[in-house]
Amino acid sequence: QVQLVESGGGLVQAGGSLRLSCAASGSIFSINSMKWYRQPPGKQREWVASISSGGTTNYADSVKGRFTISRDNAKNTVYLQMNSLKPEDTAVYYCHIVAVTTTAASRSYWGQGTQVTVSS
User: Fold this and answer.
1) Of the given ranges (30-39, 55-64, 95-104), which has the lowest mean pLDDT?
2) What is the CA angle 82-87-91, rounded to 5?
3) Residue 36: exposure state from Cβ atoms within 10 A (0-12, 13-18, ≥19)
4) Residue 45 CB contacts under 8 Å (≥ 6 apart), including other chains
5) What number of CA atoms fall less than 13 Å from residue 111's CA on the CB side?
6) Measured between alpha carbons, how far is 107 from 98 in angstroms, rounded to an integer?
7) Are 8 and 20 in contact (CB under 8 A)?
8) Of 26, 53, 96, 106, which has the highest C-beta tally within 10 A?
9) Nearest in space to 107 (alpha carbons), one of 51, 54, 31
10) What was the pLDDT predicted at 108?
11) Using an 8 Å Cβ cutoff, are 79 and 55 in contact?
């Protein structure tokens, strides 16, 4: 089994910054892609950013230039540095990984979500 524990969410004023973390634990053999998604109030979940095992990053247009995704492979952790936050960034943020464990082939795993609220 794989567990994902997210942290770093909270309330911040517009223009501020937050750093989200998502640590994976369990019988992990390798982690391929690591991603962040978000679900604004009353809306569908949307992709925010991704980072490959080789470090290639991609971002949604809405966050490009403001958010930075990174990973620490030694700690099985993915980060999302969010700068210049806007009220429209308010959402529950979820991490997602694709991992191979010692007992299962490549599978998808989700974190429990962390609330980010940006006040105007």
Assistant:
1) 95-104
2) 70
3) buried
4) 37, 38, 39, 94
5) 30
6) 5
7) yes
8) 96
9) 31
10) 96
11) no
| Per-residue pLDDT tens digits for 106-120 | 999 999 999 999 999
Q: What is the spatial distance between Cα 49 and Cα 36, in angstroms, rounded to a whole number?
A: 5
pLDDT at 104: 82
Q: Is 97 in contact with 33 (CB distance < 8 Å)?
A: yes
Closest by CA position to 80, among listed 40, 43, 35, 45: 35
Q: What's the pLDDT tens digit per position in 44-85?
A: 999 999 999 999 999 999 999 999 999 999 999 999 999 999
The answer to whether 29 touches 101, Cβ cutoff 8 Å, is yes
